[in-house]
Design brief:
By secondary structure, the chain is an all-alpha fold. Helices cover 71% and strands 0% of the residues. The protein has one domain. Keywords: Membrane, Transmembrane, Transmembrane helix.
Length: 263
């Protein structure tokens, strides 16, 4: 149980810092304004359409998709645990929002914003994909889920729907629930770094396509919005690391005593 509790503790630290430490509150707001400034980029509107995939009705369909994949792959228990984790994570996010509501430094955002429900939904779906996938397909499931998560949360921030700290909270909350599901599943297959590396390569290619035609402007924007640049890197790194590490086993195999017979 150590991994889920550690993730929840990290989420609590993020919330307390963003809600009650003035310097971190200000940095959170500055980073958000930096994300909002990206909406003028060509193609930004299409990215924003990703958000709607994690509204309640599509999210319910995605939950059923995880169950169907479990049946298709012969991993029914994994599919049910993945779907259950998605629902539990999203319900907990919606319960926490009003309980932890506090007005912060961006006036157009409501107090009940932490953690981000859409972030919890997309991260939960990404991790459910990794859980339900058979070992041979798991790196690709991790890569697809991580890429979808990074693009969706960046769209949320560009739309000005949440603070960056709300997004980090959603990533950690979903990951805590997924870690619990992995504990119940009790599998020993290890997830390699291949999935996050594949997603990182795809993200780098997309970044290059967006930046290369306007390198000077991109550098000037990053220099003028250093808090945003650091926030974007932190969120992307968190999504990639959590996508790859959460489905891994939570402990080493038990070692037999030296004098025990080995089969």
């Amino acid at each position: 149980m150590r991994r889920p509790l550690l993730l929840l503790a990290l989420a609590a630290v993020v919330y307390l810092g963003a809600a009650y430490v003035p310097q971190l509150r200000a940095a959170d707001a500055h980073a958000l304004y930096g994300f909002i400034g990206l909406t003028t980029l060509p193609g930004a509107g299409r990215t924003l359409e990703l958000i709607s995939l994690f509204d309640p009705a599509p999210f319910a369909a995605l939950t059923l998709l995880i169950v169907a994949l479990g049946v298709l792959f012969g991993r029914v228990r994994a599919g049910l645990l993945g779907a259950g984790m998605m629902v539990a994570a999203e319900v907990s996010a919606q319960v926490l929002k009003p309980l932890l509501a506090v007005q912060r430094d961006v006036p157009f955002l409501e107090p009940a914003a932490w953690p981000s429900g859409h972030t919890t939904a997309v991260m939960g779906f990404a991790l459910a994909l990794a859980i339900v996938a058979p070992p041979r397909l798991r790196p690709y499931a991790v890569a697809a889920g991580a890429l979808l998560t990074v693009l969706t949360v960046n769209a949320l921030l560009m739309a000005g729907s949440h603070y960056p700290s709300d997004v980090l909270g959603g990533l950690l909350l979903a990951s805590a629930w997924a870690s619990g599901a992995v504990l119940l599943l009790g599998e020993e297959e290890r997830v390699t770094v291949r999935g996050p590396l594949l997603a990182s390569g795809a993200l780098f290619a997309l970044f290059a396509l967006a930046v290369l035609p306007r390198v000077d402007a991109a550098v000037d924007y990053a220099i003028a919005n250093t808090t945003f640049a650091l926030g974007a890197l932190t969120i992307a790194a968190a999504a990639l690391v959590l996508s790859g590490s959460v489905p891994a086993p939570t402990g080493a195999r038990r070692r037999l005593p030296p004098d025990s017979p080995r089969g």
